[in-house]
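Morning F.,

Quick status update on the modeling queue. The single chain you submitted on Monday has been processed. Sequence for confirmation:
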Amino acid sequence: MTNIIDGNAVASEVRDGLGDAIETLTDAGVTPGLATVLMSEDPASETYVSMKQRDCAEVGIEAFDYELDPDTPAEELYDLIDELNGREEVHGILVQMPVPDHVDSRGVLRRIDPAKDVDGFHPENVGRLVAGDARFKPCTPHGIQKLLEATGVDPEGKEAVVVGRSDIVGKPMANLLVQKAPGGNATVTVCHSRTGDLGEHTRRADIVVAACGVPELVTGDMLTEGTVVVDVGVNRVEADTEKGYELVGDVEFESAKEKASAITPVPGGVGPMTRAMLLWNTVKSAAEAEDVDVTLP
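Structure tokens below.
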């Protein structure tokens, strides 16, 4: 029987496990602080930021919420980031992407203090990740590692195929899986939109991570019996529902689950883990900034 990996349950365990670390910080007079900056009227972004703020409240992290009008000059956003970089009570800074076209998104990432870059996207943190000395692992790939661990899947010695090469998921996921470290030691292939025969690669994989943003691209006939499938995609497709759409992943779930030994659903798979690992990184940042020894789950 296929194991449907419950991301909500694993994320809840991570949040619960952070309790001891946060208590240790509290005893030392430290409250972890996460600043979120929203410069968009996109409903999905607004919802995502509000969920992160709710998560913070649940575990004892202080949330600092900033909203800028999308027409605000880029310099005002940069000035806000500079201010947050200098505030001792702020240990993590997250600028919700995407930002408006008149704002250089790479410039935003470079502006954030690397020690407060809890998304792990600053060039310095990317370099440290590739070098095997990560300060912060990007939240979604880190969350996937935790899901595999919770499912009893050790990538060591296995063939892993990552479908997608984004800076947010695909590239860091491949780097983590290939690292000589726990949760790594896999032989990794990265596929993308220019890959000639995607199925040729995925059929030889023990682990497939689909993160390409193409609805139901990976189908059951592209998998080998017993493959572990992690679906990062969240895509809206038209459907005869009250909302007029439904959410599907980058994997065709019904056909894939007939082949997979374990598979993440959409929603309820990877998404909750991304948010949980943001909290994890924020607590780590607070502990390092305040020189408090904590044990992270």
